[in-house]
Design a protein that fits this description.
Number of helices: 10
Structural class: alpha/beta
Distance between the termini: 26 Å
Oligomer: single chain
Number of domains: 2
Strand order of the largest sheet: 3-4-5-10
Helix content: 25-40%
Largest sheet: 4 strands, parallel
CATH architecture of the largest domain: 3-Layer(aba) Sandwich
């Protein structure tokens, strides 16, 4: 597993180890944290490789005795692309290419499950957005790099007889998440409980999925991998949406604060929090539902539970 020390990866590691899988994590710890997986370090069946997939040799070594690759390594901050777009090229596209090359040369590593994103759709005009929506026109460098990774994976699956699944995530929330709107609000209100800066106009409306539901979806997809040479895309999200302004109210409620003043920082004058911020996002998850999966929480419930988890630590 690449990126296994990160937010999503570490939760997947916990579940895989609990089910008795042998797990190798490859992580350079640039975004992830050793603390997320340190409870497995001395456990039989778990291995941590501290390495960088931008190095082809590291990617090649990581394939020893591997059957299935969960590719979660990436720079997760969409906003980084505005100031340093090369980060997304190196951490997303280059690492994916090196990983696929290592799989191509491996005898055993023939299946890949890739963590993609809803941002590949850009500002979709069909809401909820199905996997077949097009044209795909991302409005962030992050989304573009993830779409490029999807294309690389699809081409390698068809050319070299790999099996692939592309999972397009909504906004995933939960314990260990170190970025995103909930973490941002909690940190700001801890510093100043009387005022909360909200990026954009607060009307950005998106789908939020708790990490528990995401991990359950991963296993449904794993059981549905196609034949060699095939690749499938799956949306993974909740069945509804929540606005940024509503999330602010939920965080305030869970922190038991007395109505701090909301200060909207709409610097772009179009409601977005930053360049590349998609204002309205909800994914159609009918394809996964037909496989037997469904989210257990709505967006507001996922946000509230995440907030409780963060405040309890």
């Amino acid at each position: 597993m690449t990126g296994g020390a990160g937010f999503i990866g570490s939760h997947l590691v916990d579940t895989l180890m609990g089910k008795g899988f042998r797990v190798r994590v490859v992580d350079n710890l640039s975004s992830g944290s050793l603390g997320n997986i340190e409870h497995w370090l001395s456990t039989s069946g778990f291995e941590l490789v501290r390495g960088d997939l931008k190095d082809p040799d590291t990617a090649a070594r990581s394939m020893d005795d591997v059957d299935l690759v969960f590719h979660l390594a990436a720079n997760p901050d969409v906003r980084t692309g505005e100031t340093d777009p090369s980060v997304h090229f190196r951490e997303n596209l280059l690492t994916t290419f090196n990983l696929l090359e290592a799989m191509r040369q491996s005898k055993n590593a023939r299946s890949i499950v890739f963590a993609s994103t809803s941002t590949i759709y850009g500002e979709a005009t069909t809401i909820p957005t199905p996997e077949e929506y097009g044209p795909l026109l991302p409005i962030s460098v992050y989304g573009a790099s993830k779409l490029g990774c999807e294309s690389l994976i699809a081409s390698y699956c068809h050319t070299y007889r790999l099996r692939g699944a592309l999972l397009r995530f909504a906004n995933v929330v939960g314990l260990r998440s170190s970025h995103g709107v909930i973490s941002d609000f909690v940190q700001k209100l801890r510093k100043n409980p009387e005022e909360l800066e909200i990026l954009g106009d607060g009307n950005q409306t998106k789908s939020y999925l708790h990490i528990r539901d995401l991990v359950s979806a991963l296993f449904v997809v794993l059981d549905s991998l196609g034949r060699p040479g095939s690749v499938e895309a799956y949306n993974v999200g909740s069945l509804d949406q929540a606005s940024v302004k509503r999330i602010a109210h939920i965080v305030v409620e869970e922190m038991h604060l007395v109505k701090p003043r909301f200060r909207f920082n709409d610097l772009l004058s179009d409601g977005r929090g930053w360049k590349g911020d998609v204002r309205n996002m909800q994914l159609s998850v009918e394809k996964l539902v037909k496989l037997g999966w469904a989210p257990s929480m709505q967006s507001e419930d996922a946000v509230r539970l995440c907030c409780k988890e963060m405040l309890a630590t």
